[in-house]
Specification:
The protein is α+β, with helices and mostly antiparallel strands. The protein contains 5 helices and 11 strands, in the order βααββββββααβββαβ. Helix 3 packs across helix 4.
């Protein structure tokens, strides 16, 4: 596995055009990242990525099975071998961006995915509550976000204390998948805090394969480092 930092090459003549494309649509970002890898008809999407904004420009952190091509003119790529050494009881600082959804069965018996924050509002009849008494949206973001992550922690090989995690940056997005000319809507939450490794093998799998859905839109990459570097 490889861990890479991908940033725009200042020497690129197409930097403004490229920035205009990737800042508008997350699906285009996904396509740009995919182009960093040499064509392989037998390979599916074998990478995770997360976008950060640094000094006004997008920077991408990528975990991949294949090494990205550092010779791309539009990009500057720094990469290294990614072989985390985990052990049970190890405490790590982490960051995670996810697409938090819950499945509900509708009146016709079909399961549909719902944004966890909007779903919580619906369950508690939020809109009908007195505005002076109902909780702030950020309280609901924290509550729904923690509940979502708790349900997935064991499968991802870690555990955590609710008070050691902050949930924020609740954002609703829309993107167009060009091949289908279809508008895709999804939401994201950002987590930051401390986790404890419960099952090293499962946790390593989560680092390599991600957590939750919408990985093609920059979700699911679990970034970790020792608490001493936090």
């Amino acid at each position: 596995m490889y861990f890479s930092k991908v940033s725009i090459n200042p020497a690129s003549l197409n930097i403004e055009k490229l920035a205009g494309q990737i800042c508008v649509d997350s699906y285009k970002e996904h396509q740009q990242i995919w182009q960093l890898f040499k064509p392989d008809p037998d390979a599916g999407r074998d990478f995770l990525f997360r976008r950060e904004q640094i000094n006004g420009w997008p920077v991408y952190y990528v975990v991949s099975e294949r090494r990205p091509d550092a010779e791309q003119q539009l990009w500057s790529v720094e990469h290294k071998q990614y072989c985390p050494k985990l052990y049970s009881g190890q405490q790590l600082a982490f960051r995670l961006r996810v697409n938090p959804v819950v499945s509900r069965t509708d009146d016709k018996g079909k399961k549909r995915r719902h944004d966890v924050v909007m779903d919580l509002k619906k369950q508690m009849d939020y809109q009908q509550q007195n505005k002076n008494n109902r909780p702030y949206e950020m309280q609901l973001v924290q509550q729904a976000g923690i509940a979502w992550l708790q349900k997935r922690a064991a499968v991802a090989g870690f555990e955590f204390c609710d008070s050691a995690i902050r949930v924020d940056a609740y954002t609703r997005h829309q993107s167009v998948k060009t091949s289908q000319k279809k508008m895709i809507r999804y939401s994201t939450l950002d987590y930051e805090g401390l986790l404890t490794v419960a099952d090293p093998k499962l946790c390593l799998q989560a680092l390599f394969k991600g957590v939750g859905p919408a990985k093609a839109f920059g979700c699911g990459l679990l970034l970790v480092k020792p608490v001493s570097q936090y």
